[in-house]
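hiii so my PI (J.) wants the whole complex modelled not just the main chain, which honestly fair. so below is everything: two entries, each one labled with what it is. i double checked the lines twice but i was tired so who knows lol
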Amino acid sequence: MSYLNDKQEGSVHLLMGNEAIVRGALEAGMRVAAGYPGTPSSEIIEAFSKVARERNIYAEWSTNEKVAVEVSSAASFAGLRTMCVMKQNGVNVASDFLLHLASSGTRGGMVLVACDDPGALSSVNEGESRIFARLVEIPLLEPGDLQEAKDITKRAFELSEELRNLVMVRSVTRMSHASGNVTYGTLPDTTTQADFKCNGPMFDPDNGPVISMVVGAAELQHGPQQEKLRKAARLFEDCSFNTYTGPKSPELLIITSSACNLYSREAVKLLEAEDRVGILKLATTWPLPPNLIRNNLSRTDKILIVEEVLPVLEEQVKILAAEMTPEIGAKRFFGKNAGNIPSVGELNPDIVIDAISSILDIPYKTISKTFSDAVNALAQRAAPNRGLTFCPGCPHRASYWSIHNALELDGRKGFVCGDIGCYVFGTLPSGFSIVKTLHSMGSGTGIASGFAKLKQFGMDQPVISVCGDSTFFHAAMPALTNAVHHKSPLTMVILDNRGTAMTGFQPHPGSPNNVLGEEMPALDIEAICRAMGALVEVQDPFDTEATEKAFHRLIEHGEGAKVLILRQACALSPERRNKKNFEVKIDEEICLGESCGCNRLCTRIFGCPGIVWDKEKGISKIDELICVGCGFCADICPAGAIKKKEVA
Amino acid sequence: MNTVYGSQELCTNVIGKQLCIGCGACIDLCPYFRSYKGKTSMLFPCTLQEGRCFSYCPKIEVDLDKLSQRLFGHLYDGNPLGHYISVSMSRAGESVGSGQFQAGGTVSAIMEYVLSRGYCDAVVVTDREKLLPIPRFVTQPEEIRTCSSSKYTAAPTLSAFHGAMKEGFKQIGIVGTPCQVLATAQIRSNPMDEKDFHDPTGLVVGLFCTWALDYRAFESYISTRIDKDGIEKIDIPPPPSEIMEIYMTGGDKVSIPLNEIRKLVPESCSYCIDMTSEFSDISVGVMEGRPEMNSLIVRTERGRRIIEEAQRDGYLIISDMPQENLEHLIWAAGNKKERALLKSTQENIVNTTQEDRLSYLRINRETLNQYSV
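here's the output for the full assembly
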C-alpha cells in the first residue's frame, strides 16, 4: 500500500508538496485526474497512478493540457470530483477551453492545479498562471506550506461544488518539490457513479446541457459567473487559511502567499523583527476578501507585498486600498513596483531580508563576500567544467551533429526552428548552435511552415523544424498539417526518443501503454505523417552517414512538406539505461589529439561528456563511469582511435 | 621558407573570396573540411595556426618559383605550356583492352600501364555516379577503364589521394586537372616540413583544362532539360565545334551550345593561369581537328621514361604534333595565362604585400613582364 493511501487519520507523513496535493485530492474523494507532464507538476499524475487501483481512480497523461482539462471536465459534468494538472505554460495551452469552461460552470468538484516555475529553472520562460484566474474569472487558492498543500486542495473541491465552477490551486517549484510533515485527514469511501444529466432545460445547472454559448446574451452566463466570484470573495472573508501573525499594530505589514510566506517568516525571524513586522499570509489570492484586507491594512501605514513573478497580489491590494482610502487613509506600498522586490526570478529569505531591513532601517549582516566567494571557488574546483549539454549517449547530440553537418555541406544557409524539449540545447554549442528560433510546444514547425513560404520574397534557403515525439502529438500535428496543405517546403525532424523524456519518460499517444501501466494502442508517427501527405523517412540518428544522406535528400526535394523521423531511445530511458551496446576505448597510440588532422574533434566540438581531454598526455580518453556505450564517437573519430566493441 | 597558415585564413581568403574550385586538397585530411556536390565547406572551426589544408591549397600562397625549382630545377619562366621535354600526339595502343575512352584514350593507357608495371601502387581517378564526379583510387589496371571519360565539372579528386595515403600507398598515381595537379605539386614540396618526408606520388598526369563547370549550377541547368539519371557519357569535341554532347542511355544524343554552358563556369576558373597542368609529369589533352588523338606533353624524366616504356610495350602510339597544332596550343595556353594574370593582378591577389591580405600566387617579375601585367 502506498503511504499516500494511509487510512489512519492523524498519521504524519513526510510528503513532497506535489504528494500533499495528491493526498488532499484523495481525502476529497477525487475520481479522475488528467494532465500533461511538465516540471514542477509531473509527480502529481504519477502519484495518482500509483494509488489508482486501490482508490478506484482513473488517471491519464493526456495529449496536451487543453485535452487534459477537457477530459477532466467530463468527469465533473458527470458529477465526479476531478483534477487537471499542468505546469504554468500548460495553462496557456489550456486557456481557450478554460474560458469556456468557466462560463458553462462545473458540477462535480473540479480543481485546476497549476505549478509555476519562478525563475524559469525548468522552463523556457518565467510565466505567471495567477493572471489566468483573473482572466477566466475563477477563484484562486495558494497553499502557504506543505500541510496547506493538502488541506487547501481538499477545500478547493468543496469550494468548486459550492460555487459550481472550476477552482484553481497554484503551486510553485519550492512548494511542489519541497518536502515536509503532513498530518492526514480521513479517506472517504466514495461510491459516486458517473451520471451526466443533460436532458433538462437550457442553463439548468444540475440537469441541463453544459454549454458555453452567450452569443448576444452575456447576462445569461457571464452575469451568474461573476456572481460566483462575488460569492467566493464573501466565503474567503472567513477562510481559516488566511492568517495574520504579528503584533496588533506592526510598523510594517507584509502581505504574501505561497512559498513567499515561508521566506517572509524566515526573514522576520532572522531579523528578530517579530515585534515590528506582521505577516498577512493569504491563501485566497483571487478574488481578495475586501473586509479582511481592510482590517489588516488598518494595522499600519507601511505595506510590503512579497510575491514571485508578476505583481498580481500587489495590484489587487492596491486597488482595494485605493477604494478604501477614505476609511483607512493613504498607505505607503513597497514591493515590485517600488523596487524592493525583484520583478524577475525566484525569491528567497535573503531578498526579503534586504527589503525589510532597508524599509525599517534594520542593520543585517549577510554572509561575508570572502566566505561566499571561497565557497563558490571550492564548488568550481570540485565540479567538472561543463557547459549546459546533453547527457552522454544522448541521441539528440547525434541528430544535431548530422543535421548541422548536412546544412553546412548544403551551403544554402539553412536553419532550424525548435521548440520545447531537451533538444532546446540545439541553440547552444552542445547542439552545434543550429536552432535559431525557440518558443512554445510545436511552434518550431508552425514557424518553419511560415519561413518556407517566403520564397516569393527572395528567401530561398532550407527551413527545418525539430520537435520531440511527445511534442508531435501535443502541438506539432496542426502545424504539420498546415505545412502539408500549403505545400510549404519545410523539413520537419521528429526527434523520437520513445517517451516524454525531459520530464521523466511519461507515456504519450505513441507509447504502447498508459500511465496506469495498461496496454494501449501506440499511434504510429510515421503512418500519421504519411497519411497527412508528407514525404517521410525514418533513420537511426546513431547512423550518421544514413541520417546525413536522408537529410540531404529531403532538403533538396523542392516541393511540399517533408518529415525525417530520427528514432533512438533516450540514453536514460528504461529501454537503454544500464545497457551498453558497445565497450568504447581510445587507442592512445592512434589518437591524434591536437595535431593537424583532428585537433580534438571529440572533446572540443562533439562534446559528449563521456569523453574527456587528458591535457597532460595530449589525448582523449573515455570516462567509463558515465559513458553509456552508444558508440557514436567511434564513427566520427577521424583517426579511428576510438574503438568500439559490441557488448554481447 | 614556406608561408603556411591555418583553416581560418583558408576560409577567409579562398572560400570566402570565391577562389575555391573544390579540388579536394583540403578534404579528408581532417574532419573539418568536407565536400558536397562540388562545394567545399568547413563544418566547424579549427584553432590550429598552421594546417595541411592551407599548405596544400592551390589557391593560396602558391609560390611558382619554389614549385618549379623543386620539380624542374629552375625558376618559373612563364612559358605558356610550362616546362616540358617534348610535345607530341598520342593514342592508346593495342595492348590496352577495349573500352570507353575519351578522345585517344592516352590517359587510360598510361594509368593502366603504371599500375600493371608497378610504377604506381594506386591510381587516383575521378569516377562518376550519375552526373556527380566521385573521387576514388584504384589498384587494379582493369578498374581504370570504368572511370575513364571526362567529367567537365570541378571535383574534389585530391580527397581520394589523401584516402590512398591513409591506406598506406606510397607511389600514388593521379589524374587531375591543372588545379588538382598544382595542389599535388604543393603536397610533393613538403610544405609542412615533415621529417622523413618522401614524395608520395608515382606519376602525376595532368589534363588540359580551360574551365570546369560548377557542379551544382550544371546539375540544376541540366535537370530542367534532360533526365540526369540517364546520362551515359558527356563530351566536348575539340574546337571549333563549340558544343557539349550528352549521350543518353537508349542512344539519344543531346547537344548544348557551349555559350550556354560557359555561364556555369565558377568565378574561380577565371583566375587560373594554367591550361596544360604545368606541374605534372605528363599532360594530356584533346587534339584540335583530330578527335581520335590526344595532345601529349612530357615534362619530367619520370614521365619520359614511363611514356617510352609504354610506347615500347604497345600501350601508346605516339607521333609528332604538326607545327600548326603546336603553335595553336601555345597560343591558347598563353591566352588563358594572360587573361588570368590580368584579372588576378587587378584583384590584387598576386604578390600581395599587405599584412592583412594573403596572396593567391607568388610569381616572379620576369613572368609578369612577359605578359605585360
